[in-house]
């Protein structure tokens, strides 16, 4: 079945440093979504990418969808303490109604 | 307020005692889904439903049942809970498959002893 892996599993950064998490799917995806889960909270939808090579920005967050639609990345510029949490990617394979989540990257910020 | 409501938030039960976790959404979403979250394993889909009376298995359906008799409700049923079903459960909904992000409920932390 479809598998979605994320690396790294954990990332500790100094406040103000940049952060990147990578998402890789075993199958070609029709879309990729990103979610953020604060400690003790529930996942919150951030964005969806659909097109090959698509890049979208939300303030300090930059999301990319790979040309082959099998990988994606989330980059945060100049991290802040409010960025703490676990970031998940999730995607649908073509012809599959299931949304499969990645394993997540847990970001902690050192003030 | 648009939301997905799960109940209960916390539940401790004994092995074999049937339980139901309720999920309701007020956004008229067609698509609803249940996930369980375990450390190191991320979110794994249990069951999903694309509309009323339409349900299908996710990646880890064993030991669970669901029903979708009304659009707004999607309860998760554990007929005979076992300790390996101790987990954090999330219900989620979206307006259409693949075209909208999921809105998640606040979660139900289940412990089976």
Features:
heterodimer, A: 111 residues, mainly beta, six-stranded mixed β-sheet, five-stranded antiparallel β-sheet, 0% helix, 58% strand, globular, B: 113 residues, seven-stranded mixed β-sheet, four-stranded antiparallel β-sheet
How would you describe what is shown here?
The complex is a heterodimer of chains A (about 110) and B (about 110). With about 110 residues, chain A is mainly β. Chain A is built from no helices and eleven strands. In chain A, strand 9 (about 85-95) and strand 10 form a beta hairpin. The relative contact order of chain A is 0.34. Chain B has about 110 residues and is mostly beta strands. In chain B, the strands form two sheets. In chain B, strands 2, 4, 5, 6, 9, 10 and 11 form a seven-stranded mixed β-sheet that branches. In chain B, strand 9 and strand 10 (about 105) form a beta hairpin. Chain B starts with a strand and ends with a strand. The interface between A and B is medium-sized, with 26 and 25 residues.
Q: Uncertain runs of chain A with pLDDT below 50, 5 residues or more?
A: none
Which structural category fits the helices and strands of chain B? mainly beta
The first-to-last residue Cα distance of chain A is 41 Å
The mean pLDDT of chain A is 94
| Helix content bin of chain A | under 10%
Please outline the major beta sheet of chain A: 6 strands, mixed
Helix content of chain B: under 10%
Please name the two chains that share the biggest interface, counting residues whose Cβ lies under 8 Å from a Cβ on the partner chain: A-B, 26 and 25 residues
The count of helical stretches of chain B stands at 0
Radius of gyration of chain A: 13 Å
- As a whole number of angstroms, the C-alpha radius of gyration of chain B is 13 Å
By DSSP, the count of extended strands of chain B is 11
Biggest sheet character of chain B:
7 strands, mixed
The number of helical elements of chain A comes to 0
Portion in beta strands of chain B: over 45%
CA distance, first residue to last residue of chain B: 36 Å
**C-alpha geometry of chain B:** globular
Beta-strand percent range of chain A: over 45%
Class from secondary-structure proportions of chain A: mainly beta
Which stretches of chain B are low in confidence, meaning pLDDT under 50 for 5 or more residues running? none
């Amino acid at each position: 079945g479809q598998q979605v892996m994320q690396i790294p599993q954990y990332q500790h950064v100094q406040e103000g440093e940049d952060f990147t998490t990578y998402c890789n799917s075993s199958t070609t995806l029709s879309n990729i979504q990103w979610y953020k889960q604060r400690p003790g909270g529930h996942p919150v939808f951030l964005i969806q990418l659909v097109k090959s090579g698509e890049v979208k920005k939300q303030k300090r967050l930059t999301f990319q969808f790979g040309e082959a639609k099998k990988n994606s990345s989330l980059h945060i510029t100049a991290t802040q303490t409010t960025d703490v949490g676990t970031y998940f990617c999730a995607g649908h394979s073509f012809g599959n109604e299931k949304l499969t989540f990645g394993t997540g990257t847990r970001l902690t910020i050192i003030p | 307020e648009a939301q997905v409501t799960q109940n209960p938030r916390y539940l401790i039960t004994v092995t074999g005692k049937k339980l139901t976790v309720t999920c309701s959404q007020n956004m008229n979403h067609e698509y609803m889904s249940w996930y369980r979250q375990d450390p190191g394993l991320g979110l794994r889909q249990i069951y999903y439903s694309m509309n009323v009376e339409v349900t299908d298995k996710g990646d880890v359906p064993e030991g669970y049942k669901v029903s979708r008799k009304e659009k707004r409700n999607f309860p998760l049923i554990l007929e005979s809970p076992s300790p390996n079903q101790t987990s954090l459960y999330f219900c989620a909904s979206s307006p259409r498959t693949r075209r909208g992000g999921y809105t998640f409920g606040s979660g139900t932390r289940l412990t089976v002893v």
